[in-house]
Task: structure prediction
Amino acid sequence: MAKQVAIFASGSGSNAENIIKHFENNPDVNIKLVLCNKKDAYVLTRAKNLGIPSIVFSKKEMEEGEVLTILRKEQIDFIVLAGFLLKVPAELVAAYPDRIVNIHPALLPNYGGKGMYGMKVHEAVVAAGERESGITIHYVNEFFDSGTIIFQARCEVLPTDTPEDVAQKVHKLEYAHFPQVIESVLNKLA
Ligand code: GRF
Result:
């Protein structure tokens, strides 16, 4: 039986698209649903273009358990957060132990936590004069960016790099590694 996967996203969805395309011909993994907390997020257009159903929900609906109800009804086995900006409620984390992964555009535990997302992360890395940045893929717990780390990849940050330059290098790492890391985690699932 193929593993049923839901992707949560809040914004553009370039990682979501990359993941959907990666698993398109994989009989063991079905990207069944895209869930989003922003009705005008471009990820919804990407999902539509790729033929993946999507559901928009509010923060309140997530916190009141309605999203968990949807996941159970859809028989979702595994959750991927790809640019999802809300904290996952403890009840949902408990329902999916080591079955929710997230990607963060920095080398956790640095440059993570509440409010550290998107360009804010790269601006902080450049402002701190870091010589490297990268990505972290980790299991999700009920706190921001603090679950067990599964994978990290690094990129060089030059003194002349702008936050946009760093963002570009980090996105390249995301597209190169996230689908494969998800696949390897899914392969280990019972
Ligand atoms: C990515 O940088 C990812 O690391 C972070 O949010 C961004 C999402 O970009 N979690 P996109 O929506 O996948 O284009």
Summary: The pocket of 5-O-phosphono-beta-D-ribofuranosylamine is lined by residues 9, 11-16, 82-83, 103-105, 118, 174 (CB under 6 Å). The chain has one domain: 3-188.
